Amino acid sequence: MNLRRLADAEVAGKRVLLRTSLNVPLRADGTVADDFRLRRGLPTLEHLVRQGAKVIAVGYLGREGASLKPVADHLARLAPRIPLRFFGESPARAAEHTASLASGEVAVLENIRREAGEEANDPALAEVLASLADLFVDDAFAEAHRPYASNVGVAQLLPSYAGLLLEEEVARLSEALTPPPGAFAVVGGAKFETKQPVLRKLSTLYGRVAVGGALANDFLKARGLSVGASLVSDIPVPDDLAKSACLLLPTDVVVSSSRGGKRICRVDEIRSDETIVDNGPETSRAWSEEISKSSFVLWNGPLGVFEKDFTEGTDALASALSAASCRAAVGGGDTLAAIEKLSFEGDRVFRSTGGGAMLDFLAEGTLPALEPLRMPPL
Ligand code: ADP
Ligand code: MG
């Protein structure tokens, strides 16, 4: 996929609208709980500042109505040498402030989600954003699967470029779309209805596709097993997908019962009052073995109920990946949290900032926000 690259843009002295991913988990007191996405966005910010651009940074924060102030403060601490100010203004009111920006300065606008036109990709909001800048740089891969005014809309109105993170995400996930023979994919988490397209795609590209987490419940059920009181999706797994030859399902699981206990059992021994909460040890061993002999690993989604501390299956897979030597691409919030404690040499294991965006890119080979950044064919 050929995107216009930031490296090819003349930004010195120009007003640059930067769509960057500021969408981070916040603690109850509003401070930043995990700054992975902010750190991954720093190279683009630093590049723009070094080149003498006047940067107007726009971000979307998922928590309804929340202010970006604590996120901007955190970003300022991560990059103490960058002159960064939080303007706390809507785009319509920002012009009077951004007009006075000097080269190499950064102004962060308020959460663009507060604008009614953002999620509707309202052309009027896109016009206002475009009026603030000479060119547009999109670095927010994590939200590139949503066609909003601050990515798709404004990119259609200004000369637009992919930021360094966006470019790297597309390159590394494109690698995952052309895996070598002997590659292994693992998909966990929940919501089969949203993951069906990516599972279908991966089953055509990968020799082995392991399905874990709550998704596995749907597949076990489709194969006629009783999953007790486990979380299942509203839509059934189509027969051909459930019977796909590349599929790997858990053979044993951790279950918790409504009476409070937990135990490990085979997947054909689940009682009606029991809930699957994690992979069992036999499954962890088998999947780890699979990783050790794989040429490439793709992984998105936790294999157990992470929030309730059922992390063993996910941790086991993370350790196997750390012990392996193959290249890999990993994404999804809980999945990254599991591999955070481990170290990986060089750039062998790519950590995507996208959860949903990663899955959509893998399913479709593109994303709405990437389309306006494409280079015209020669
Ligand atoms: P992510 O948020 O990482 O993108 P998802 O939203 O698809 O991934 O899924 C994460 C959720 O899946 C977590 O809330 C986790 O508790 C849940 N989950 C994983 N395994 C199970 C399971 N066996 N039963 C119920 N929920 C599960
Ligand atoms: Mg989720």
The parts where pLDDT drops under 50 for at least 5 residues are none
- Biggest β-sheet description: 6 strands, parallel
> Could you tell me the number of beta strands?
15
Bound molecules: adenosine-5'-diphosphate, magnesium ion
Overall mean confidence score, pLDDT: 96
- Overall 3D shape: elongated
The largest sheet has its strands arranged as 3-4-2-1-5-6
Radius of gyration: 22 Å
Judged by helices, strands and strand pairing, the structural class is: alpha/beta
The proportion of strand residues reads 15-25%
SS summary, helix count? 13
Report on this structure.
By secondary structure, this protein is an alpha/beta fold. Helix content is 35%, strand content 17%. It has 13 helices and 15 strands. The chain has helices at residues 36-50, 69-78, 91-98, 123-131, 149-155, 164-177, 192-205, 213-222, 239-242, 281-292, 312-323, 333-340, 356-364, and strands at 15-19, 54-58, 84-86, 106-108, 135-138, 160-162, 183-187, 208-211, 247-248, 252-257, 262-266, 274-279, 296-300, 327-331, 349-351. Strand 13, helix 11 and strand 14 (327-331) form a beta-alpha-beta unit. Helix 10 packs parallel to helix 11 (312-323). The mean pLDDT is 96. The structure holds adenosine-5'-diphosphate and magnesium ion.
